[in-house]
Write a structure and sequence with these properties.
The protein has 640 residues and is an alpha+beta fold. The chain contains 16 helices and 15 strands. The strands form five sheets. Strands 10-9-11-12 form a four-stranded mixed β-sheet, with no helix packed on it. Strands 1-5-6 form a three-stranded antiparallel β-sheet, with no helix packed on it. The protein has a three-stranded antiparallel β-sheet with strand order 3-2-4. β13 and β14 form a beta hairpin. The protein is globular. The protein starts with 30 loop residues before the first helix and ends in a 13-residue tail after the last helix. The relative contact order is 0.12.
């Protein structure tokens, strides 16, 4: 296949600005998972009168009423369900008919699905510890309010985030306080109705003190606590499938907290309810022992679905149609086999892509309106690596993909440039300009003609129709396969073209790899926000650079023969530092990890490492080296 620019996705050739960055950090990781803690037994707070001892309790007037007709009234900890209440569609949403999602009932066996195992054993999940009340009051309208434990827990969720960027966002505060009021409703503290009168400082300061105390714990104690936890959880780390003992991925149930999300997610700040055994479906072999739920509880359901390999599943408490799964770990043979199949399918597309391109250009010229729309979407998926996009519920973020683009998401810049501006996955803004084929430019103009800004461009298709169409072009071809192909093909091509030859150092080669990785990340719209520490880190590196430059200058002034070797060494250090600074600044808004983990065939990277004498840990984390262990035996001449 030709390696001309025509084969390279458009993003790698002509790219517009990147905007609307969102952090790719641990935003969705619960606080307890990010701040390691040593479990200690705390004394229970004194039993104080919380039912009527607060001065403000009598301030509540009979006229203090509130509209609680929302459909989101379940108490914290209840099983999230799918509601049937109707709501008006937000202006500008896609008007396409909603299609029942395939994973709405993941426990049901799909007709004709392949059998994945004969026997399956595991030990279930580890639940977060129950909440321990600290007894620190919330201050409301200048008075201490001693909350009930379940109220205090929710107040603490917000208090520990009081000084974060999230807590400064109106939508985050509104969603939190709506949930907090529902938690208080019907209890002695229902009079708390005004967020501006709430002062969480005392709880915030308590949390700071707790964190400082944890820092004071000796290294030996931390190691002992970690070892004890590891021993207690060891049985959950493993599952046995068809007699093979395999490592399990994340077997811990996420603790409750406040939802953060990415980008400007409309649900940020909502309360993530505590998951109970009654929420969880266990998938296990018929003859295997079912794990015991917590005392006094029972599992939602126990199934024996041998056409899937997940072990446990439950509804996400924020996006209730989404499912959380416990699956085999990244280093398991199950995941390795899945990865190999995924990348081999993408490699097959390399052999078929020329015929696919001829097909979509032909249909753009002479096909029906349906065929033309399928042809243009296939072009956009091929050249821009756009996601499919699907209809969202009314209370979800208005994120779109190629199938749900609306007229207002594109601007036509003659002769053949199109500006795209929309929210993609995780509410990450996609703002890029691309020069496209004239056929595509004029076809999109026709599809938009006479429509309002909130109307669909592709009004004859949806993701299901597009994927069915793709499978007529190549068995098993989907939009995601196209993205994997584009990412891998781009990396493979750029590494060949940009890797420095000759006496280039490992840091120089790594910089070339990172630059190629960056192009793939931009192609896939994998962005992140600039780290708060970025400026400080750059300033520190700048200081280090100035120090080295002063040392070189001082040695030159001495004009001693013995200084020549020192100057050479310092120059090498300076060159390496300047390269590090350059790459750090260029990559500050791009997330390299997602494409490495999910889209770029690891055999390309490992073969490149072998060809260029670069140790794999230079470009891969330890976890990725373990995950892609199956790719380590690839030959240096591997070509995607």
């Amino acid at each position: 296949m030709s390696c001309s620019d025509d084969d390279l996705p458009l993003v790698a050739r002509a790219r517009g600005p990147i905007a609307g960055h969102a952090s790719d950090s641990d935003d969705d990781v619960p606080l307890s998972a990010r701040v390691p803690s040593v479990t200690t037994t705390k004394p229970k707070p004194k039993n104080k009168n919380k039912s009527g001892g607060n001065k403000l309790a009598n301030k509540r007037k009979p006229s203090d009423t509130e509209d609680y007709s929302s459909g989101d009234d379940e108490p914290i900890g209840s099983l999230a369900g799918i509601r049937n209440g109707k709501s008006s569609r937000p202006q500008g949403r896609s008007t396409k008919k909603k299609v029942k999602r395939v994973d709405d009932e993941p426990w049901r066996e799909k007709k004709g699905a392949k059998k994945m195992w004969s026997s399956l054993e595991h030990n279930g999940v580890v639940f977060p510890p129950p909440y321990e009340a600290h007894g620190i009051p919330l201050v409301y309208d200048g008075h201490d309010v001693e909350l009930l434990p379940h109220e205090e827990e929710v107040a603490t969720f917000f208090a520990v985030m009081k000084d974060t960027d999230y807590a400064q966002k109106d939508i985050f505060v509104k969603n939190f306080f709506d949930g907090f009021k529902k938690t208080l409703r019907g209890g002695p503290h229902g009079f708390i109705k005004d967020f501006k009168k709430c002062d969480f400082t005392k709880i915030y300061m308590w949390n700071l003190q707790e964190r400082e105390q944890k820092k004071m714990v000796s290294i030996e104690e931390k190691k002992r606590a970690k070892a004890e936890q590891a021993a207690a959880e060891d049985k959950y780390c493993w599952a046995t499938i068809d007699g093979r003992r395999e490592r399990v991925g994340n077997y811990r149930v996420e603790p409750p907290g406040l939802f953060r999300g990415r980008g400007e997610h409309p649900k940020m700040g909502r309360i993530k309810k505590r998951i109970m055994p009654e929420d969880i479906i266990i998938n296990i072999g018929k003859s295997s022992k079912v794990p015991e739920p917590s005392p006094g509880h029972k599992w939602k359901q126990v199934i024996h679905n041998d056409t899937v390999t997940w072990l446990c599943g439950w509804n996400d408490t924020i996006n209730t149609k989404d499912w959380k799964y416990v699956q085999f770990g990244a280093t398991s043979s199950i995941k390795a086999e899945s990865d190999i199949q995924k990348y081999e399918k993408a490699r097959k597309l390399k052999l078929a892509v020329d015929a696919i391109r001829r097909d979509y250009f032909k249909k753009m010229k002479s096909g029906s309106i349906l065929e033309q729309q399928l042809a243009v979407t296939t072009y956009l998926v091929d050249k821009l690596a756009l996601r499919a996009g699907g209809e969202k519920d009314d209370d979800l973020a208005d994120t779109v993909g190629v199938c749900t683009l609306r007229v207002g998401h594109v601007d036509f810049l003659p002769p053949t440039t199109i500006k795209f501006d929309f929210l993609g996955k995780d509410s990450i803004r996609y703002l890029q300009e691309h020069e496209v084929d004239p056929l595509v430019f004029h076809a999109l103009q026709r599809f938009c003609k006479g429509k309002k800004k909130d109307q669909d461009i592709f009004d004859h298709i949806d993701p299901t129709k597009v994927n069915k169409h793709l499978q007529t072009l190549m068995p098993g071809l989907t939009i995601k396969v196209f993205r994997t192909y584009n990412a891998s093909y781009t990396l493979n091509k750029l590494l060949k073209e940009t890797t420095p030859a000759g006496s280039a150092t490992v840091p120089m080669k790594k910089a070339a790899y990172d630059a190629a990785n960056k192009e793939v990340a931009v192609l896939c719209n994998h962005q992140k926000g600039v780290s708060k520490a970025h400026d400080a880190q750059m300033e520190k590196l700048q200081d280090k650079k100035k120090t080295i430059e002063k040392e070189i200058s001082a040695l030159r002034k001495e004009k001693k023969e013995k200084n020549k070797a020192k100057i050479t060494t310092l120059k090498e250090r300076l060159s390496k530092l300047e390269l590090q600074m350059k790459m750090k600044d260029e990559l500050k808004t791009v997330s390299l990890g997602t494409s490495k983990i999910n889209y770029m065939d690891p055999r390309i990277t490992i073969a490149w490492c072998k060809q260029n004498d670069v140790p794999p840990p230079t470009v891969y984390t330890k976890a990725l080296v373990e995950k892609f262990n199956w790719a380590m035996e690839v030959e240096p001449n591997f070509d995607f």
